[in-house]
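Possible regression after last week's pipeline update?

I re-ran a chain I had predicted before the update to compare outputs. Posting the input and the new output here so someone can diff against the archived version. Not blocking, just want to make sure nothing changed silently.
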Amino acid sequence: MPANNTVAGILEDKQGVLWIASDGAGVWYLPQGASQPVPYLSAEGTPLINSNAIYAIYEDTEGRKWIGTLRGGINVIQHRTSSFRHITYNVTGQNNIVNNFILSFGEDEKKNAWIGTDGAGLRYWDRTRNTVSQYVNNPADKNTISSNFITSILHDAQKDIWVSTWFGGINRLRKHTGTFEHYTCFNPHTNSEENNVWLVYEDVQKNIWASTTNNGTLYLLNRTNNRFELFDESIINIQCLSEDSNGDFWGGNYTSLIRIDRLHKKHQVYTIGYPVRCIHEDKNKNFW
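New output (post-update):
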């Protein structure tokens, strides 16, 4: 702690952490076993207390810290009530908020995370080493990912990583080279590519599906020909896919819930009147 600041109060909390009130340098804390106190700041380095003149610190029976300040009133430090940890991606020299616009997640067999951003490409987070690899589109290199807008990520039964994108169709990551194989969704009825792909999904039969939106249709991967083929032009704008415990295949679009008949294409449509974004069957077989 800076030597030229007056210590106005000290508190040892229930966890053995020493909290220090200073007159001019804010709140500091000294964890057990540490040799130097550290200032109580946010991850960005800004003060979390609204005054630097701290005259009192008190801990109540529920572990809250009550901070008495000069001209800042009382501040309260709450126990962490959420099991979520806030993680941001910061690149030296970059101040681009798009880096933390997250659209999608995936996980591989090593329990590491794939993170899809809304404009900043695909990332791989090695959680053991706490390192991040970034994959971004380079128009001059056909082996890079086809778009920086990553809408969904699938780790399939063959341990391949599939990535759907906005503007760029579908990508499969070549595991040994770190390059990408590109797939398009070509609609033979409109004679056009549908490149706004919202999701890729693997069913229990190990079939891989892709849904395009903006009046796009549903596609199925033909593994023999290694291409996505139109499944049924009547199924459009699918936002989510799911299978229930009976083996039925369901999709949701902007207005309806659809039971998709994979064999005969005699689908059942249930009008909801709102976009269906997620489908879940609970342990009691209730459908949400």
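Follow-up from reviewer: compared with the archived run. The mean pLDDT is 92. Marking as no regression found.
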